[in-house]
Amino acid sequence: MEEDKKIIKEHTFKTWSKQKGWEPILVTTARGAYFYDSQGKKYLDFSSQFVNVNLGYGNEKVINAIKEQLDTLQYINPNLGTEIRAKATKALLKVMPKSITKFFFSTSGTEANEAAIKITRFYKAPSYKILARYRSYHGATEGSISLTGDYRRWFVEPHTMPGVVRFPEPYCFRCPLKLKYPDCNLACVNYVDYVIKQEKHIAGIIVEPITGTNGVVVPPKEYLPTLRKIAKENDVLFIADEVMTGWGRTGEWFAVNLWGVEPDILTTAKGASASYVPIGITGVSNEIGEFFEDHVFAHGHTFEAHPVSLSAIPAVVEEYERLNLLSNVKTLGEYLGKRLQELKERHKSVGDVRGVGFFWAIELVKDSKNTPFGTYEDKYEGRPIFTDYLAKKLLEKGVYVFSGPSWFVISPPLISQKEDIDLGVNALDEVLKEAD
Ligand code: PLP
C-alpha cells in the first residue's frame, strides 16, 4: 500500500499543482454516495468528486450496460455506425434542449469545447472571435484554456489561441462593475451587445449557464435570456458549456432549461456517463448540422463515438428516470440550500451561500467587509490556502468537498438522501469554527 502511494507520487502527476507535498489517499472501493480508502475508512462524497459522479458509485444497471457493450463490440472506427451509437443518440434527443439535434462524441469536457470552437469558426467564417467570461473554466487544452478566463489556470499558455474576447461575469456578491442588482439593470450583460458591435467578427459567445469551478455563480433570472437575445440579434452563436451544470445537477436535465433558453451549441461531459466511462458531447442545432452537408467536418478522434463510452448514455438516462432524480434534486436541493444558509447564520466566516438543486457554493470571508480568505494570487503563487486546509480537515472527518480559493462547491451525487446531506453539513459546521 505504501509502495503503491510511492509509485503514484513519484511517477505520476498531480494536476494543477506543484508536486511537492502530495500525499495521495489510496481509494479502493465505493458504493452509493461513499468511497473507502485502503485502511477501510469511509468518506462521504459531498461534491460528486469534480461535480461528475452524478449517480454515485456502483450503479449495477450502468455497469452491466457497459459490460454488455464490451462483450458485444469494444471498438470500431467512428465512420462506421454502431447500434449503440443510434441508441445513445435517441436517448440524447429525448433529454437535450429541443434546439440541439446533432452530436459529436469525444471523451472529455475539454474536447467537447475544442470541437465547439472549431464548429463555430467553420460555421461563422470569416468571423472567428469568441466571447467568454473572465470568471470561467472551459478546459485544459490550448484552445479551451484560452477561452478560460480564470487566470489561476494560466501558466505558460494563456491567450495562445487568438480571437478570444472576454467580458465580466454576473458575480453579484462582488460585482466586477461595482453595481447592485437589480438597480444595475444588468449592465454586465447589456455591455456584451456593445462589445459585439465594436469588435466585429464575433462568431460565438460561450458561457457556463451557472459558473462552476469559479464558485457556482447563479446569474439573475433575466441574465441568460438577455444574453441569448443579444446573441441572436447580432447573429452570433450562443454556446452553453454544460459540462458541469448538465444532467440533473440543477434539478433540470440542463441548466439552460431553468430559464427556457435554447442554445445553438451545447457542450457536456461528466454527468452524461455519470463518470462510469469518459465521454464528451458537442451538440449542435439543425442549422449548424445542415451546414456540414456541403462543408467538410474537419475534426475527429480515434476514440470518437467509442462504443463503450456511448453505452453508458442510455443506461444513465434510464437510471435518472427510474430513480426520479430530477425530482429528488428539486426537493432535497431546497433542503440542502436551507441547511447551508443556516451555516451562514451560524458562522461569520460564511459570506455568501448560493446555488440551485444539488449545486451550491459557500463562500468564505475574512471579515465583515467580505474580504476573501484565499485569493487568486495565493493560488497562483502556489501557497497553501485556507479552504484547502479546511478541505483537508473535512477529509480527516470522512467528508470530501471540492474547494476553490475561497469557497467550497457542495454538489452531492444526485442519489444522496437527507441523512447524507445532514452528515456533510454537520461536518462543515464543525470545521467552519476554525474559520470564524
Ligand atoms: N467546462 C466546464 C464548465 C467544466 O467545469 C470543466 C471541468 O470541470 C470542463 C469544461 C473541462 O472538462 P474535462 O475536465 O472533462 O476536460
Automatic annotation (TrEMBL):
Q: Does the keyword Nuclease apply?
A: no
GO MF annotation list: pyridoxal phosphate binding; transaminase activity
The UniProt record lists the keyword Transferase: yes
Give me the Gene Ontology terms describing cellular component: cytosol
Q: Which residues form a coiled coil?
A: none
Query: Which of UniProt's keywords are assigned here?
Result: Aminotransferase, Pyridoxal phosphate, Transferase
Q: Which CDD domains match?
A: OAT_like (cd00610)
What family does this belong to?
Belongs to the class-III pyridoxal-phosphate-dependent aminotransferase family.
Question: What name appears for this protein in its UniProt entry?
Answer: Aspartate aminotransferase family protein
